[in-house]
Amino acid sequence: MSSCPDHAASEAGLESSFTVDASRVTFGDGSLHEIGPRVAARLRDGGRVALFTDPRLRRSEWYDDAHGSLRAAGLEVVVFDEVLVEPTDVSVGSAVDWAREVGPDAFVSVGGGSVIDTAKIANLLTSHPGTLLDYVNAPLGGGVPVPGPLRPHLACPTTSGTGSEVTGIAIFDLLDAHAKTGVSSPMLRPTEAVVDPRVTATLPADVVAASGLDVLCHAVESLTARLYTSRPAPRPPTARPASQGANPWSDLGCREAITIIGRQLRGAVAGDAEARHAMMWAATLAGIAFGNAGVHVPHAMAYAVAGRVRDYRPAGYPQDQPLVPHGFAVAVNAPAAFRILAPTSPERHLEAARLLGADVSDATPADAGEVIATAVGELMRDIGAPNGIGGVGYTLDDVPDLVHGAAPQRRLLDNAPAPVAEAELDTIFRAALRSW
Span 30-195: which CATH code? Predict the structure, then answer.
């Protein structure tokens, strides 16, 4: 179960070190009122701040708190509120064009992962030259390394799920490919995260369910990812990737997040205020963990599930177009993926099930896949999540197309605890038609 350094691995040319990257985090009720002074402390003599949000959140008290704090600190505020629930390369491009025109000195994002990710990319492409596709992960993009630091960015999440406020990852739909992709670099990590759990009070139940399942998958995937000591040592050392694989630092956050989820997610979906507060903390912990370890197969599969949606429209989300919320798109694959991958590290899969609340006292390593798949599936059923990819509108006939969409996600698939190519994806997608 250990992920401590292996000296034999070092001698074999494999990784023997890991790097801890983390944003500065302020967590607590009312912390949105601290945004202005925190931004002002990073700028000389005031400055122009680009405030990113979406149309719905601009009408919320959380936006008012952030905007008022920035203005009270003597900062000029310019607002971009056209972020989509599921950003695309086109919508992100519009945000970049806007940011280049207004020339901000700093960025603030108030919203879910879509808002935070859009702000990350706008910050990248106003801080450095190039196009979006230059920086997109290969093979869908050029995979050009981010060349240096970005402008200050304070990220303020309003959903308890994505963890984007503490990661160096930005995700969007690449429309021509009918799949999600993204940019990954420690340089994209927001300078500070301001996490105010009051925001969870106004979230619809389905949003809490979807975002909470995203947290669960972040934590279980990071805990069961390939060990960092199984990777080739980077040359130069500064080229170590953001997704390093399971390591002692990420393990800490994963374990605590899974424990909180097992105890609190059902109550959070039902509207319990204390449980929602706890889930906001779990999201931050899991975000810090997966921002260093990385996720794997369920997330890779999710990009195809979300990118090829036909007619699924979940309650609690805008109804103007089909949408599989990210947390649901990941979770519908998770029981099948964990069941099939568990033999690679049964002790870690059993640990995840135990932390989630399952009784593993009589379980053997051979039981690990079934035990973790059952624990995750029961939680999904209890909070009203879709039952597998069939629950969001896919059939057996769609599997080849879904495999085609997931196969290019090598950054994620290569972080799995076992090799995963198209044949393995086909097996897992077929098994994921139902979650329980």
Answer: 3.40.50.1970
Structure tokens at 244: 């390093």
- Full-model pTM: 0.91
Please state, as a whole number, how many other Cβ atoms lie within 10 Å of the Cβ of residue 236.
6
Give yes or no for a contact between 303 and 180, defined as CB atoms under 8 angstroms apart: yes
The number of beta carbons lying within 10 Å of the beta carbon of residue 263 is: 15
Domain range annotation of the chain: 7-16+203-431, 30-195
| CATH fold for the domain made of 7-16+203-431 | Dehydroquinate synthase-like, alpha domain (1.20.1090)
d(C-alpha 113, C-alpha 207), whole Å = 12
Write out the chain's pLDDT in tens, 436 residues. Answer: 555 555 555 557 899 999 998 889 999 999 999 999 999 999 988 899 999 999 999 999 999 999 999 999 999 999 999 999 889 999 999 999 999 999 999 999 999 999 999 999 999 999 999 999 999 988 889 999 999 999 999 999 999 888 999 999 999 988 888 778 889 898 999 999 999 999 999 899 999 999 999 999 999 999 999 999 999 999 988 888 888 999 999 999 999 999 999 999 999 999 999 999 999 999 999 999 999 999 999 999 999 999 899 999 998 888 888 999 999 999 999 999 999 999 999 999 999 999 999 999 999 999 999 999 999 999 999 999 999 999 999 999 999 999 999 999 998 999 999 999 999 999 999 999 999 9
d(CA 297, CA 281): 24
Long-range contacts of 144-147 (CB under 8 A, 24+ apart): 145/185, 145/239, 146/183, 146/185, 146/187, 146/188
